[in-house]
Amino acid sequence: MQAYTSSRISLSPHLAQPALPATLGSGPVQPISFFPAGSEIYAQGEKAGAFYQVEFGAVRIYRLLADGRRQISAFHLAGETFGFEAGATHHFFAEAINATGVRVFRLNAGADMSHQLLPLALKGLTRAQEHLLVLGRQNAIERVAAFLVDMVERQGGLRQVELPMSRMDIGDYLGLTIETVSRVFTRLKDKGVIRLLNLRSVEILKQDVLQTMGE
Amino acid sequence: MQAYTSSRISLSPHLAQPALPATLGSGPVQPISFFPAGSEIYAQGEKAGAFYQVEFGAVRIYRLLADGRRQISAFHLAGETFGFEAGATHHFFAEAINATGVRVFRLNAGADMSHQLLPLALKGLTRAQEHLLVLGRQNAIERVAAFLVDMVERQGGLRQVELPMSRMDIGDYLGLTIETVSRVFTRLKDKGVIRLLNLRSVEILKQDVLQTMGE
DNA sequence: CGCCATATTGAAATTCATCAAATGCGGTGG
DNA sequence: CCACCGCATTTGATGAATTTCAATATGGCG
Hints:
2 copies of one chain form a homodimer. Chain A is of the alpha+beta class and 215 residues long. The first copy, chain A, folds into 2 domains: 4-113, Jelly Rolls, CATH 2.60.120; 138-213, Arc Repressor Mutant, subunit A, CATH 1.10.10. Chain A is built from 6 helices and 12 strands. Chain A has helices spanning 22-25, 114-137, 140-154, 167-174, 178-190, 207-213; strands at 4-5, 32-35, 40-42, 50-56, 58-64, 70-77, 81-82, 93-96, 100-106, 160-162, 194-198, 201-204. In chain A, the strands form 3 sheets. The first copy, chain A, has a 5-stranded antiparallel β-sheet with strand order 1-2-9-4-7, with no helix packed on it. In chain A, helix 3 crosses helix 6. The longest helix of chain A has 24 residues, at 114-137. The first copy, chain A, binds a DNA duplex (30 and 30 nucleotides) through residues 139-140, 166-168, 176-183, 185-186, 198-199.
């Protein structure tokens, strides 16, 4: 875990979500680590013992098969937390998608954080199970629609959505190839449901249609 | 939630796993509810406020799309716990697969169960995320192999595995149709990897091959 | 022993992946 | 500021895997 810890990081002025509940934010200020695009935050098999809050940037959590196939189980945007796991070691990889600042909360043996962690773990569990429905039972266009709706909601419901991740990341999150993801974007564009402002930002023209597609 | 609570249930003498940690089992004995095959334990939208331990039988947790497509996110066998969720209401359905006895632990507002629940939630989270890899990135035969390996492990690694659920349940768990599940079973049989003793029990002839397929 | 639901098998259709080529965006340097 | 370069993305053609539709077989239970 090669972190570029810095004390003079300029934090993003526009966090997508409020910070953690006051109970977590109180006490001594936690250090912020900076990770360049593509760098590893932790690896599968590594010792766990901390959890993380994204200050700015975006993080992908994933797992690999022996032959290199990758499944991204979650993206984490500014304000969101990740990294708490069962057992002493990480079961997944965490990487910065682009330049990312992360606040690290070390779990020291003494303090009991169950109260804070349980709601986060339960929320993560619900998200993962909902994602199972998408991967198990929805077709390509429904998957992309569900993904876009989710991103809209996590970015405050604005018409314009930023996609910090590549098409490959989106594919590996949705269980599709990049070609299929690209074709679906084109189809949604042709239907007048979305508009591609540039590769990384989408304008939602028909939120209701998208909503219905993603169920 | 139509439970047939009974005080004279004969518990299965062979729980697949030990009961909950002593911290949960201590205190007043929790009531056991009996659910016939196919009956609902709780429904999506229903008020939460308890968690459950399977005493005997098996439970499926699932979610539905508007058009009836179903994704089973988890099966729970004897000894396993389920039902804790984020928020005040259930996001999923829980049904008894066959005649099932469930020990109900009500969460009363006073007592704090974070310590007991957090490890369970984290374990569930890990399981769900691993299942995401299966649904997102593995083909039909790999999915069935992963499923069988999981069932073997949860039943103590014996050569003979009991499958309490139907092919339809397995399909809805693996994101496949019943026909595909059936064909894969046949293929595994023809390859000499498994032997179908009857519809609900499988003998594992080549555990290593299965293990490798399921990654 | 026979019935009926569940499961298996078969053939055709569909969706998505793969392989391949072209486009274009974003960043760099002149 | 503009042109160029490299890489991500898009688009196209083909193929493979899985679904769908349909028929048959099986076996669990009365």
